[in-house]
Amino acid sequence: MQLKEHISPHTIITDVGSVKGDIHRAAVKAGLEAQFIGGHPMAGSEKTGFSSATAYLLENAYYVITPTSRTPAGQVSRFRSLVSALGAIPLVLDYDLHDFATAAISHLPHMIAYSLVNLVKEIDDSDQTMKTIAAGGFRDMTRIAASSPVMWQDICLSNKEQVLQLVDLYTRQLAKLRSYIEAEQKDAMTAYLQKPKTTVTP
Fold first, then answer.
1. 61-100: buried (b, 16+ CB within 10 Å) or exposed (e) per residue?
2. What was the pLDDT predicted at 188?
3. What single-letter DSSP state applies at residue 36?
4. How does DSSP classify residue 41?
5. C-alpha to C-alpha distance for 183 and 50, rounded to whole angstroms
6. Regarding predicted confidence, which is higher, 46 or 81?
7. Could you report the per-residue pLDDT of 93-102, keeping only the tens digit for each?
8. DSSP secondary-structure letter at 37?
9. Which of 18, 23, 123, 157 has the fewest CB within 10 Å, making it most exposed?
10. Which of 91, 66, 53, 62 has the alpha carbon at shortest distance from 13?
11. pTM for this one?
12. DSSP E strands: which ranges in the chain?
């Protein structure tokens, strides 16, 4: 709101947050809907701070752009050009779709990683046998649990409804797999385990 009186009508205001809904609503409330374009570079790691920066962070990474209903097409085009100039791949999405998609492919995986690490820590023996023998598969799944707890607390609370919906959907998937194991339904298990091989990201 403080910027509104000082910027030109051609100025683009953007952000790089992981959740778009709250900031879109704030832009509307501030009367900046015509100048705001949400942005989310789909890049980064579990590390934080300037010392973890890299000149190639955005190279060939998708950069989601979420215009408002009042963002002029010309402004969107200008912003797409800026994103491309950074080496990233611009992708225009509705902000609600963005928040649901990132809840599925980013926010939920982080919650799974945190919960898995906490589970192993709780059930490990005094010699930390599980921690000692944890191999590549466990490390690959749980690397992101080293991410900033404060940042992920904020992300989950900002995208609360979407994250909760995805946690429920994931719990149902886990329950389905559990039922196959309990009933020793080999064919159903094989089919279930085979399905991701055609869709998983290499």
1. bbbbbbbbeebeeebbeebbebbeeeebebeebebeebbb
2. 96
3. E
4. E
5. 51
6. 81
7. 999 999 999 9
8. E
9. 123
10. 66
11. 0.87
12. 13-14, 36-41, 62-67, 89-92
